[in-house]
Amino acid sequence: MKQAAETPQQVGPNAGEKPMGGLSVAMNPALQTLMLMSIVSLATWTGVQANDVDPFMLQAPLTEEWWQLPLSVYAHSSPDHLTGNATVILIAGGIISLSTSWFRFHLFFLSSGILAGVSHVAVTDAMGTAAPVLGASGAAFALVGYLLTSNTVSSAVLEGASIRVVLSVAAGVALFLTIQSAGMEIANLAHFTGAAIGLLSGHFNLLRPQQWGLLDRVSRS
After folding, report:
1. Residue 97: which residues within 8 A CB-CB, separation 6 or more?
2. Whole-model pTM?
């Protein structure tokens, strides 16, 4: 009597984690992010018509109306604003989503977007020219930065480099990326912060499973 072949079971902190490439399109975190951006942006444009966009804009003081923190990352001021960021996120985020989990992708996107927005509002407020901000450009720059330093070529170039060198390179590249998109009505500081977060995160491969084994186990429980 034939016995069924026994399938070897994976053990360890990443056991049971499936790559995003094997999941359905609807479960892809990059596409889910684009959907959230569209929904929140539509709500924002409805608020514009009603002269009430405050819930969707991150503005000083940061200690009030906490819901502005997440909503401002997904909200956009116009269809052109939404389309521009969505294109970057679809490309960079789509590539990253193939080698990370749903949980890590969304946490990275939202946290980098919030930190980018907070840096812009906090610095402009300290300078006496407080400017509100909305949009996912900070998070989009973080995704691009992550791609630039998480690949094998970048890893080989910076292998063995001191943290001071890594920080200097990240700051220089982030400044370059920011200058390329700089403008009078653009949140340049948010772009710089997002790019710096992404470059450093990519260098340390923070979105790889082995880096977040404990959190991945918690997210699957």
Report:
1. 20, 28, 29, 30, 105
2. 0.79
